[in-house]
Amino acid sequence: MTEDLSPAERYAAARKRAAEQATALADFREMYDFGLDPFQIEACQALETGKGVLVAAPTGSGKTIVGEFAVHLALKQGKKCFYTTPIKALSNQKYADLAKRYGADKVGLLTGDNSVNADAPVVVMTTEVLRNMLYAGSQTLLGLGYVVMDEVHYLSDRFRGAVWEEVIIHLPESVTLVSLSATVSNAEEFGDWLDTVRGDTEVIVSEHRPVPLFQHVLAGRRMYDLFEEGEGRKKAVNPDLTRMARMEASRSYNPRERRKGKMVREADRERERRQRSRIWTPGRPEVIERLDSEGLLPAITFIFSRAACEAAVQQCLYAGLRLNDDEARARVREIVEERTAAIPDEDLHVLGYFEWLEGLERGIAAHHAGMLPTFKEVVEELFVRGLVKAVFATETLALGINMPARSVVLEKLVKWNGEQHADITPGEYTQLTGRAGRRGIDVEGHAVVLWQRAFSPEHLAGLAGTRTYPLRSSFKPSYNMAVNLVEQFGRHRSRELLETSFAQFQADKSVVGISRQVQRNEEGLEGYKASMTCHLGDFEEYARLRRDLKDRETELAKQGASQRRAAAAAALEKLKPGDVIHVPSGKFAGLALVLDPGIPAGRSNGHRGFEQHDGPRPLVLTAERQVKRLASVDFPVPVEALERMRIPKSFNARSPQSRRDLASALRTKAGHIVPDRHRKGRAAAADDREITRLRAELRAHPCHGCDEREDHARWAERYYRLRRDTQQLERRIEGRTNTIARTFDRIVALLTEMDYLRGDEVTQNGKRLARLYGELDLLASECLRDGVWEGLTPAELAACVSALVFEARAADDALAPKLPSGKAKAALGEMVRIWGRLDALEEEFKISQTEGVGQREPDLGFAWAAHQWASGKGLDEVLREADMPAGDFVRWCKQVIDVLGQIAAAAPSVSGAGDGDTVAKNARKAVDALRRGVVAYSSVG
Question: What global pTM score does this model have?
Answer without folding.
Answer: 0.69
